[in-house]
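Help! Submission page says 'invalid entity' but I think these are all valid:
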Amino acid sequence: MALETYSRDLIVLRKRFRWTFAIVIVCFAILVLRFFQLQILQGERYLTQSQANIVRVHDVPAYRGTMRDLKGRILASNRPSYEILLTPAFFDYEQDFETVCDFLSLGPAEREELARRYKEQEGLKAYQPMLAKENISRDELALFETHKMDLRGVQVAYHPIRVYPLGRVAAHTIGYLSEVKEEDIASFPERGYRPGDTLGRAGLERLYESILRGRRGWYKTIVDAKGVAMDQVDARNVVDGPLRKEPVPGKDITTTLDADLLRLIDRIFLGYPAGAAVVVDVHTGRILALYSKPAFDSTEMAAGLTRERLDEMNASPFHPWIDRTILADYFPGSAFKPFPAIAALESKTVGEHDSVNCPGFLEIGNRVFRCGGQHGLVDMAKAIAYSCNVYFYNLAVMVGMDRIAKYSRDYGFGERTGLGLPGEVPGFVPSREWYIFRKKVRFRPGYTMNMAIGQGNLKVTVLQLALAYAAIVNGGYLYYPQIVKSIEEPDGTPVQRFMPEVRRTVPLSPDTRRILIDAMQSVIEDPLGTAYGTAVEGVSIGGKTGTAQVARQKQKKGQEMRDFWYFSRDHAWFVAFAPVENPEIVVAVLVEHGGAGGKTAAPLATDIIGQYLKEMY
Amino acid sequence: MPLETQAKIRFDWFLPVIVLIISISGILNLYSAVQHVPEDRELYLTQVYWFAFGIVAAVVVATIDYRIFERYAYVLYVIGIVLLFAVLLFAREINGSKRWLEFGTFRLQPSELMKIFLIVALARYINRQPRVSKSLLADVGIMGLITLLPMLLVLKEPDLGTALMLLIIFVTTLFLYRLNLSSILISLGLLLAVAPFSWTYLFHDYQRQRIISYLNPDADILGASWHANQSVIAIGSGQVTGKGFMLSTQNRHEFLPAQSTDFPFPVWAEEQGFIGALFLIILYLVLILWALRIALRAKDRFAMVSAFGIANIFFWQAFLNIGMVSALVPVVGITLPLFSYGGSSILMALLGVGLLLNISMQTSE
């Protein structure tokens, strides 16, 4: 082959190189543009992603504040709950699985379940610890602590859980924690709730949520692609900013409650399925006890109720969810009588010694209004001591509904006390206007007469009654009920102290006060008094009984006669104060379906006062 | 006209300098890439030994008259085929494929060498054809068969990436074959250049997955896209100046797969940043353009087709590997010549460089 042809051939071929140079340059220009895009235009984003790849942020839960009673005893605090975690990547299943199950004293079914979950985890998530058992006992914990050297891939972890030493006692007031729900997270974005967090669901736990909960902290670990933690020493080379943020523990709360008093009340209520008691410090409005029965167990609630327990509680005819001190209102019955009496005396409509003859009933038009007995000639003092309805019927007609209503409102009835606990009801004080314009009935004196004996349309809460009595015995100072005394840092440094606050000063003449106090002392000490025989040695007590009628019941289908009988009985009230000479505390007791106040409620109230003032005060 | 034998012998300094810079960068990068894996710490040393061996081999190849290679091209080709058969018969399966012949601690990957052997064989075939052939299709068919045999053997290993490279060598060699085919070949070349982009931008995910799983049923689609994603994160997070030598978090924390063989470039880009990446990309570009220049100046068809073929290997492997780690093209196992770890890969690249040097010293102008 001639060289010349060769060369000509090559010259033809060379023309094609123009294309190849161009294609190579274009392709490499594309690569450069791509790297420009990734490293310069989007570099920031990828840097963030590369950090997120290797940095795991772990929460450090904040220690929730402790709740104490006025003497520093614990009402709510935390204890660690221990759990056992297995990491399949490091765990020797063949050798150690049975040992771990034995240590945890798992039954055959539990073993099988754990083995199944273990096998699931083994593949992709082999480096993630999995829960073997939570809330292990101290003995189980000790076993793992002693053998932790022999068991690879086994980890003991803990998280704080909330405990309530009083259990069911004052559970409504103290409240409980439960896991946050979707809507909580949405409602309070500023609190930064996350799934798995807990929050105060009721009572003080809920009211003081933002103070008690503190702020969670975190720490960062450096991991590789499998999620295995790496040497933390060079973490600083990799992570910008701090590696750890300490949690801010929640603040502690000192309440005005008295744990011993609450336990005492609970003991005294033994045998009565449902009722409530409120104890108020007369001079400050501080609440020493808010007691409602039946109740749930806060610790059990915090751990999470089983379906069965929940159904059982929901089905209970005693409605354990309801806080009977503030969430329900009742007819006060005769326990209300001091307030129409004040209205009469203060407005000078009726004099102290104005008397009425009680034949046991009163006829108005064609209606007959009954009295508890035939009291004969009674004045104000006797009418209160014997709880004479006929006297108060006459008084009601003379004073009139609107005047009674005005004084009642002055003493705090018909409006929320301002305690602050969620769901408090205001009760109700009727008026002429209400009957005429809202109920659209022709106003009759009978309405006023029923109101004067605490029936009709009047409704009060146990707390309202206690505070109103306190206002009588302290000379007219209606206090805001105070349940939190102070807030402290975990180390005890005070943050805020709450002072008693007078809500309203009600004009109450010393004479009126004296008349009422004397009369209420007679309730217990006069042989004909409705609570005679309930006196306690060493303490002088005054008080007023109440027997509130219950709406007429119909026996429900399938309801046992015993239950029907129980739920048809009247509610028994007694509101007491002591000592009479210089009252310190007011105790309001409601025994649901307890029958006569003097028989059922009064002994409980005086018992509470007697033991409390003698043993604790 | 005087005879071509009087052509000046000039040593081409430019080519070895560029190759050396790329190689040193690769060894440094390899050192950084494997330090966190205790059993691989010494890997870079093995790489240095292979370079030493490869440089000796390249010098030998550069100094022998290339017409010797032309004469024995088919012998080399047959040796390559025999080695590939030997792989299928004797090789140990590693990670699901048989690729290496082992002689003690020495491991050879014949499919890498086959790239050079195929180029030389095709170059010889073209060289020996008359200038005006009557049977164009028959020629293309014969060259196709020469390519198909090793390709099938490599696919059987299986090694999709290398098989693809053999196919690319064949197709691009045709580019230089016949003038009257030019329009077809040019459009074919364009098509190949466009294919990777259409792959990324034209198809939907599920379509791509179907194609990949059709071509390679064992492909771990999820794993592959996860790796590609992590690779992009590595590159992007390097930003302009990089995180610094030995400080690639994506590599040290094991987010990059095969960081010494298929994915060494992201380590480089993460540690040296855009500046470092640009530096290397430009070096490769210059290397390839230089190789094309050598092909352009070749004084006969064999030299031209060989040099062009070697330029093609560098271009396609560099482009596909860098494109793959930056998620421009799908993940196929193609190494970055002179930069990736692997003795056979280095040997292949340096043999190619040796041949290029040889040809460049006997240029026509």
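Support: the input was valid. A stray whitespace character was the problem, and the output above is from the cleaned input. The first strand of chain A starts at residue 55 and ends at 60.
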